[in-house]
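Now for our specimen.

. . .
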Amino acid sequence: MPSIRVAIIGLGNCASSLVQGVAHYGRTGSGRGLIHERIGGYGAGDVEFVLGVDVDARKVGLDIAEAIFAAPNNTKVFCADVPSTGAKVIKGVVLDGVADHMVTAGERGFIVSEEPEATKAQIVDALIATQADILVNFLPVGSQKATEFYMECALEAGVAVVNCIPVFIASDPIWEARFREKRLPIVGDDIKAQVGATIVHRALSSLFTVRGVTTERTYQLNTGGNTDFMNMLDRQRLSSKKESKTEAVQAALAQRLEDENILIGPSEYVPWQKDNKICFLRIEGSQWGDVPVNLELRLSVEDSPNAAACVMDAIRCAKVALERGECGALTAPSAYFCKHPPKQFPDETAMRMLDSYLADALRVAG
């Protein structure tokens, strides 16, 4: 089978885990740790990275295989010997992709390259020249203008998109219609983790619901030490992130909670945690006879590998959609892999929808 040619916007921790994973699974052929071993005939090792776009001086000009290990990346290295991709990282645009406090944060933040920014025409030309199938958006939270810039590039270049961040594209009717008009698929928005805070919160909220317990109040507080958490110290960049995570949990409740009874979102940046994310979760409810029941949970995960598993499946779903001529937001993959899809479904329903979608893709591939 041909490889899946992928361009990445933002060579941070998530990109590092994704690229390491492709090298790891391509070398070992193992299915351990994958959500789906094969999708439409494609394995995790069938992805080829053909273009990287970043603005950090420590990454621009490097091969993608080198850039993923450059500072300020601090995720776990589980595959140190990633082979050269032959694809260099080019400088993109800054726009709102870099918060002011990230520039003044020194080595832990971003060091913007002094090279000229790429123009839209240059990004489009690069996507076409590298024959990219799919563009993966790993920009920092709050990068509304930058994301829209790259979405324009993808539309013009004829490239499918996996939108991993909470800037609403697939779930925005106007943007979704534009992908549909161009006959291009998109998976989005805001990628879930394999077993992360949001999916665990949804699962426990659903458990309360199906067991007849009324949820009255809940919170989810997270701490971490990667650039994502540092970026989110600017609370003005958090509005879409909080909406995405909150709506994902609200959708799993029997009755929507009032705003004062639900708090979900990042809490604090703790540098020494690096890419480790710790979630503190509490659900308060009433059971038989209005007797109270409270649940508290602490979850500790490596943030970026946790996301990479879902991104890998989303990439392969997007490739299958390209081959089948599907366009617009992919309903089942978006519902299963993303926090803010165009339409929310219970996780069990989304899983059944995805299973049906993948089975159909397998029949076509076979």
